[in-house]
Write a structure and sequence with these properties.
The chain has 77 residues and is an alpha+beta fold. The protein is 40% helix and 22% strand. It has a two-stranded antiparallel sheet with strand order 1-2. A two-stranded antiparallel sheet has the order 3-4. The longest helix is centred in the middle third of the chain and has 14 residues, at 43-56. The protein is globular and about 25 Å long. The two termini are 22 Å apart.
């Protein structure tokens, strides 16, 4: 994982292009949400949730990015 990969994903999300954003997700992606008690597991489960998120928010703006080893952290609003 690299910041470049995450930048491409966040750019797709900010453009509301869920199909392109999905190309940046692993098949075994896990989405943890503060709203739902159980995680969403797998691309087929996560993509519709992200699509719903994009319909519910006005914009996504990256505030902060950090890369440490294999981990990339993004804070957005």
């Amino acid at each position: 994982m690299s910041i470049k990969h995450v930048d491409d994903y966040m750019e797709s999300m900010s453009k509301r292009n869920i199909e392109d954003a999905a190309t940046h997700l692993a098949e075994d992606v896990v989405l943890l949400s503060p709203i739902f008690p159980e995680p969403f597991i797998g691309k087929a489960a996560v993509v519709p949730i992200l699509g719903g998120l994009l319909q519910a928010v006005d914009s996504l703006e990256t505030e902060f990015k950090m890369e440490a080893g294999d981990d990339v952290h993004v804070v957005f609003r």
